[in-house]
Amino acid sequence: MMDVKPEDLLEVGVVIGIHGLRGDVKIRPLPTGGLALPGAREVYLKDSNDLLVAYKAVRSSQHKQNILLRLAGMENLAAAESLVGASIWMAKAELPELDDEQYYWSDLEGLEVVDQQQGVLGRVAGMFATAAHDILEVDSPAGEILIPAIEPFLVRVDRDTEQLHVNLPEGLVPEADQ
Question: Does 37 lie in the same domain as 18?
Fold first, then answer.
């Protein structure tokens, strides 16, 4: 396990509990974490003291909306219980390659958001998951805009111009104060 810098990592989930008698940790994946965690070979857990600890992933599986992960050295209930609440990180270099139409959260952060009708709206500032789909948070002069991260709202990502092109319905964007 090599030393990694925080900027080389992407947060992919949070340990929300344990599952079974062998100490599998139950992880609620963050947006795009569900794409990365199933193939994880090594993960980093950050505790409440911001301490990062590397673990070898022995086994992973999907469990409802969550992911179960067995970590080397944590194969019993007592050891795994101490991990509840920790955030899960992966090295960006270890993330699986995605299809052309899929993106990790870190790929979208900071992109300028351009609507087909209204022009530039602001920049992608955050992302969170709901039961239905992920939501992009956009900081704009008119205030925060929440955009469902699904078709038909997201049109395309232009990496050359660092823009996310969207097609939003009327009324989704708050009116700026005149």
Answer: yes
Among 54, 89, 69, 65, which Cα is nearest to 24's? 69
SS (H, E, C) 109-126: CCCEEEECCCEEEEEEEE
Whether residues 73 and 32 fall in one domain: yes
- CATH number of the CATH domain containing 119: 2.30.30.240
Domain encompassing residue 44? 6-94
Q: What is the DSSP letter of 48?
A: T
Q: Based on the domain organization, do 78 and 21 belong to the same domain?
A: yes
The angle subtended at Cα 66 by Cα 46 and Cα 92, nearest 5°, is 45
pLDDT digits (tens, 9 = 90+) for 18-66: 998 878 999 998 877 787 888 889 999 987 788 889 999 999 888 888 9
What are the pLDDT digits (tens) for 80-92? 888 999 999 999 8
Q: How many C-beta neighbours within 10 Å does residue 9 have?
A: 20
Split at pLDDT 50, 70, 90, the class of 176 is: low
